[in-house]
Specification:
alpha/beta, Rossmann fold, Alpha-Beta Plaits, 2 domains, four-stranded antiparallel sheet
């Protein structure tokens, strides 16, 4: 799919998600290329008089929201979020997700867990019959990186430590590493999620299961709404 078509679809899905945001809401702000469109459009609505408070899921999203004049709060001040809008790297027919391509999976999952309505926005390329074409990100503490790599490889994955363009390990906002785990088709996503969660040294993984309430997928000029 050409990049400009992808960008148009991302923007269309982001625009469609605005109807879930109501005046007075606390809004979770996702991270990544699609969530960026949502934050931009939300900023325009705030300029137009919409009263909301945002809780960003990354330093990048916080900086973007602040630059657009979106009032921000924190989970310290507010533990209940009305609606969160975020992107995903893959979505399957059960609305299970792979997330974390943008490196913010830990905070994204924490924000999602505190949210009444979790709205996912994607372009058509992210819709898959089975998860796993996209490598599964796993956030690990530095101390455990080699050990966790070995244990995930024992589950059948090819594991690559995520790096920056300068060749140094990528660091998350919480100063952890990310392992990109190539499993191929993940047939038992629920079981794999449990195995990863039980591994000492794993901070969080990018399988988001039973969390999305609505998925908006833009396909050309049409936006398809899926519900769990």
């Amino acid at each position: 799919m050409p990049n400009d078509q992808k960008d148009q679809e991302k923007e269309a899905a982001a625009r469609a998600s605005l109807r879930f945001v109501k005046d007075g809401n606390v809004v979770g702000l996702g991270t990544g290329s699609t969530a960026k469109y949502f934050i931009q459009l939300l900023g325009e609505q705030v300029k137009g008089g919409l009263r909301i408070r945002g809780i960003p899921s990354s330093d990048r999203s916080r900086e973007q929201a602040a630059s657009l004049g979106i009032p921000l709060t924190t989970l310290d001040e507010c533990q209940q979020i009305d609606v969160t809008v975020d992107g995903a790297d893959e979505v399957d027919p059960q609305l299970r997700l792979i997330k974390g391509g943008g490196g913010a999976l830990l905070r994204e999952k924490i924000v999602a867990s505190a949210t009444r309505q979790y709205v996912i926005i994607t372009d058509a390329s992210k819709r898959v019959p089975v998860l796993g074409k996209f490598p599964l990100p796993v956030e690990v503490i530095k101390f455990a990186q080699a050990l966790v790599t070995k244990r995930i490889e024992a589950l059948g994955a090819k594991v690559i430590l995520r790096q920056n363009s300068d060749g140094k390990p990528y660091l998350t906002d919480e100063n952890n590493y990310i392992l990109d785990c190539h499993f191929g088709q993940i047939r038992g996503a629920d079981g794999l999620a449990n195995k990863l969660s039980d591994m000492p040294g794993v901070v969080e993984h990018g399988l988001f299961i039973g969390m999305a309430s609505v998925v908006l997928i833009a396909n050309g000029s049409e936006v398809v709404e899926l519900r769990r």
